[in-house]
Amino acid sequence: MTFDPNSPESGPPRQPVTRDGPNVQAFIARHRSSFILAAVLVAQLLLLSLQITRNHDVRLIRVWAVAAVDPFQRSLRGIADISVGAWRTYRHLLRAQQENQELRTQLASAQFQLQQLSEQAAESGRLRVILDFKNQLPFQTVAAEVIGSSPGENSNAIFIGKGVDAGLTSDLAVITPEGVIGKTIAVFSHSSQVLLLTDPSSGVGVTLEKTRVEGVLKGDRQSLCLIRYIMNEEPVPSGEAVLTSGLDQIYPKGLRVGSVVGTSVGNIYKNVEVKPAVDLSRLETVLVVLKPNSAEQQALNARP
Question: What is the CATH number that goes with domain 141-301?
Fold first, then answer.
């Protein structure tokens, strides 16, 4: 095999040609003079800006530099101002939240204190009424707080916080300024059980205020009572006040018991429904009537 110098396969190896290489080089070579001229012009402008001064002896290059940097500086300053403002707003909001929490706590405390003062004022008012009523009574009484009720949904008995230590015994009338509520049935050292008017086993001698018809009040259900042993022909108007007659030797004469709310004719006796004068579900402070001595009993019997 012979070597042919004119063969296209002979000679130095060819360099790989990129797609963009010859085009870029050709563009630079074609516009080289324009690039050189632009560079010279820029250099001259820079030299002139170093020599030319404007107002207050400020060189033009410095003016251009400030003009070029100023937008970025303004942007950075704006970002910094926004960041500082946001941080201050966050601190103010955090402080406001803490102050609101403190104010809520103070408000809750003030409301609790106000409620306590209101309850104390209401209790003072009730005690004042009880004391005034106690001073007007012609017999001796002992004030007692209601401390509980007997177990059961339809309980007709309560417990009071006075007992043998206060001189109480069984079968003592228990009253309030509004009227009669019941009698003591069991007395302990420091408490007593009171049977309410609405209990079916209770019994109170009563008389109608205007007609003076007498009967016996018995418990019927939790909110009403019945007067028994009033003849059918006796007039019993609705709304008539019912008072104690004193014949049972337990309740002093003339105490308010309730009012007539309805009547119906029975076989021999009327059925007279009575609503108690006292709301027996909201008892707080009561008075227990002590047994009078002979002189006091005579004075009570002489009352109209």
Answer: 2.40.10.340
